[in-house]
């Protein structure tokens, strides 16, 4: 398979699908755990403001309030770009903006600016009346200011301090060079009784250890995991009012395959005849990254004629790395999206002319 058609990790996805809903549909804080931008791929983000005029938001200076002038949400992107984009060990940089919104607003934007380049990334003829996105200094396609390629995690939140869900979001990763797409609903939490760091606790939405996953013959179909380490219980991903926590860009989790759900088994995976194969290769991810399933298995097992050449299944284990370096905070919680894709060729040994992809979030 030739992979040079697509410049970057997730852009290898071809075909189209929509991921299933996550465990919450709306809240005060949204996390888009995986967004990308490159010369062939961008991410389309939709944010619904379900609040009222009495909902606390921000003004252009980041001050909290409601009513006239308090008509902005906080958008924060943690990112890796350029050479760091495909480096799972690299920490994330960060940029953030207070961008316009209004009650009952739907804002759909292209973070990379490939589409809507003349409308600051805002799509589909939004009139800029109630939500004045055309105001001076506003730019929704802020990922276009970073080096290509870029991968990251995006937060969008208001300043609501009451119990009740007031935001909802969706994302579509669009590989426009070949017409492929996949998507997901944003992870969401309620800020609860106070607009503090407790409102940025996503530990309950992270993947648990022992999630069973399958993979098809590696020579025909790629299986890739997009991993975003998240906070363990008792910690948070952002501080009060969404301020940056310096350690978050250095959150690091380890992913590995194991035959036992708890991770104490001796094997890496089962083949299609229930035979256990050994040879696990753990992989560490900082902030956000991509790991091929084959990278977690000894290469001889997935090569032609290998024990797992026809695919198999295992348990994905999320665990903290054993040592902490400066600027790194280890965590045993992560959001993981599993993507199976092919650029065409063969499927089950039969020729297929069209590429395909399929993705979903692991629970």
Description:
With 363 residues, the protein is mainly β. 1% of the residues lie in helices and 38% in strands. The chain has one helix spanning 299-302; strands at residues 29-37, 41-49, 57-58, 64-65, 72-81, 93-100, 106-110, 150-157, 167-175, 180-185, 187-189, 211-215, 222-230, 251-258, 269-270, 276-277, 283-286, 289-292, 312-319, 329-330, 333-342, 345-347, 350-352, 356-362. The chain has a five-stranded antiparallel beta sheet, with no helix packed on it. Strands 12, 14, 17, 19 and 20 form a five-stranded mixed beta sheet that branches. The longest helix is centred in the C-terminal third of the chain and has 4 residues, at 299-302. The protein is globular.
């Amino acid at each position: 398979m030739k992979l040079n058609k697509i410049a970057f990790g997730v852009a290898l996805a071809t075909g189209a699908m929509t991921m299933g809903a996550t465990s919450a549909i709306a809240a005060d804080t949204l996390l888009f755990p995986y967004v990308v931008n490159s010369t062939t791929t961008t991410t389309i983000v939709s944010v619904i403001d379900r609040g009222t005029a009495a909902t606390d938001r921000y003004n252009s200076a980041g001050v909290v309030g409601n009513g006239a002038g308090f008509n902005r949400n906080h958008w924060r992107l943690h990112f890796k770009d350029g050479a760091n984009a495909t480096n799972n060990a690299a920490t994330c940089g960060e940029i953030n903006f207070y961008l316009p919104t209004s009650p009952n607003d739907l804002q759909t934007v292209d973070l990379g600016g490939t589409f809507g380049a003349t409308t600051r990334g805002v799509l589909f003829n939004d009139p800029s009346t109630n939500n004045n996105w055309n105001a001076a200094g506003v730019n929704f396609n802020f990922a276009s200011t970073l080096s290509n390629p870029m991968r990251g995690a995006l937060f969008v939140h208001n300043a609501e301090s009451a119990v009740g869900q007031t935001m909802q979001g969706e994302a579509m990763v669009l590989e426009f060079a070949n017409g492929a797409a996949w998507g997901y609903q944003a992870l969401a939490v309620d800020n609860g009784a106070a607009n503090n760091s407790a409102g940025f606790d996503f530990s309950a939405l992270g993947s648990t250890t022992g999630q069973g996953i399958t993979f098809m013959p590696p020579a025909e179909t790629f299986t890739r995991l997009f991993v975003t380490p998240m906070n363990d219980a008792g910690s948070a991903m952002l501080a009060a009012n969404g301020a940056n926590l310096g350690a978050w860009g250095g959150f690091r989790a380890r992913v590995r395959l194991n035959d036992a759900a708890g991770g104490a088994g001796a094997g890496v995976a089962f083949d299609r005849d229930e035979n256990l194969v050994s040879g696990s290769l753990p992989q560490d991810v900082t902030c956000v990254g991509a790991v091929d399933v084959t990278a977690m298995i000894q290469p001889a097992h997935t090569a032609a004629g290998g024990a797992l050449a026809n695919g198999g299944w295992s348990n994905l284990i999320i665990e903290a790395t054993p040592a902490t370096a400066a600027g790194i905070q280890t965590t045993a919680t992560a959001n993981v999206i599993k993507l199976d894709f092919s650029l065409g060729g063969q499927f089950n040994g039969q020729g297929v002319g069209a590429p395909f992809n399929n993705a979903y979030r692991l629970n």
